[in-house]
Amino acid sequence: MSRPSRVVIDKNALRHNFKHVQTLAPGSKIMAIIKADAYGHGLIRVARTLADAAAFGVACLSEARQLRSASITTPVVLLEGPHKATDLSDILQLQLEIAIHNEFQLGILEQARIAAPLQVWLKIDTGMHRLGFPAQQTLSVLERITHCKNIKQPVRLMTHLAVANEPAHPLTLQQLDTLKQACDGLEVEKTIANSAAIINFPETHDAWVRPGLMLYGVSPLIDKQADELGLKPAMTLESELISIQQLNQGEPVGYGAAWRCPEAMPVGVVAAGYGDGFPRHARSGTPVLVNGVRCALIGHASMDMLTIDLRNQPQAKIGDRVVLWGESLPVEEIARYADTIPYELLCGVHKRLAFIERG
Ligand SMILES: *Cc1c(COP(=O)(O)O)cnc(C)c1O
Q1: Please, which residues have CB within 8 angstroms of residue 114's CB and are 6 or more apart in sequence?
Q2: pTM recorded for the entire structure
């Protein structure tokens, strides 16, 4: 028998979320962010489904190479840019666009001998302090870029916001102000907004927006659920009950014997665990849907299995469907129970699972 655990990807949901970004940012081109295997949804699958994107953003060369090998011709932006001088020949051959975020990379480009100039996204650090040239160097760097024959003119500007998911945090307005001062009067295309900014800060939409999480139907905001934001989850992680135990009051369940039945009760065993990407830190009480009804996780997930309290579904039987997140059970909620963020759970689904497409 094949393992019943699987990931269902709803392509209609991906298309719906993409259209929603278009509605929110009607004047902007969309760079769909599909790094980390499209947040676990499948790089090529998502790129083919979101063929209307003006560009795709990826983290590294191997992701870009996979896209080109699948005959995807949409512009692809390497968000971290080249890591070493020898990357440039691959970048040229794969026809990629690149972020340039530090002196090292600019030096590589100035020294290189390449056959054609590259499209560059100059990344400015406006306060996140991860990647980017210091904002006050923007004009001097642009000046050097105009003299660099390996860079196609005009370049585009990019910055990244650190706290766009918290609308009241003062840093976002500071970052926007810093960017404005850095490129005052410049006629260049800019991109600022990730998912949270697309929703919270319309003034950041600019020429391009860079949605990631929201394309997958997941809320980037702590205080708003995806459905309130008009988003539909694209990934459902599901499995089945493979065993049911009728236990007595006080009997322990699972490793460590830490959880004990508060009364005589049915306990279900589900064929999914941390070896599939379900977080081992998820606490007892983490919601799990059995036949669409909320039940609760018992103890910690083990590698291939997890146990659930079936008192809300006493008639459940072996083979019944179990949803661990996705449809009717937001991954955001599971992330809270596991002290993590939905991004990590989505990226962490294991490739041993069967992937099934709908829509
Ligand atoms: C990952 C990433 C995004 C997308 O962020 P979300 O919060 O998933 O929308 C946008 N821009 C850059 C540079 C990124 O690395």
Answers
A1: 88, 89, 92, 150
A2: 0.97
**Ligand 1 mean position, distance from CA 131 (Å):** 13
Active-site hit among 19, 255, 317, 351:
255
Catalytic residue among 35, 123, 190, 232: 35
Residue range 73-119, pLDDT digits in tens? 999 999 999 999 999 999 999 999 999 999 999 999 999 999 999 99
Check if the beta carbon of residue 62 is closer than 8 Å to that of residue 30: no
The question of whether 35 is a catalytic residue gets the answer yes
Q: Phi/psi at 282 (nearest 5 deg)?
A: -55, 130
CATH of 11-220, one of 3.40.50.12780, 3.40.50.300, 1.20.1740.10, 3.20.20.10: 3.20.20.10
Cβ of 194 closer than 6 Å to ligand 1, yes or no, is yes
**Closest C-alpha to ligand 1, atom 6:** 212
Q: How many A from CA of 161 to the centre of ligand 1?
A: 9
Residue 314: exposure state from Cβ atoms within 10 A (0-12, 13-18, ≥19): exposed
Over residues 97-107, the pLDDT tens digits come to 999 999 999 99
**How many Å apart are CA 125 and CA 123, to the nearest integer?**
7
Q: Which of 210, 229, 235, 331 for a ligand 1 pocket mutation test, highest count of atoms within 8 Å of Cβ?
A: 210
213 pocket-lining for ligand 1 (C-beta < 6 Å): yes
243 residue type, one letter:
S
CATH number of 235-358: 2.40.37.10
Q: Is 26 exposed, middle or buried (0-12, 13-18, 19+ CB in 10 A)?
A: exposed
Active site residue 216: no
Domain boundaries, the chain: 11-220, 235-358
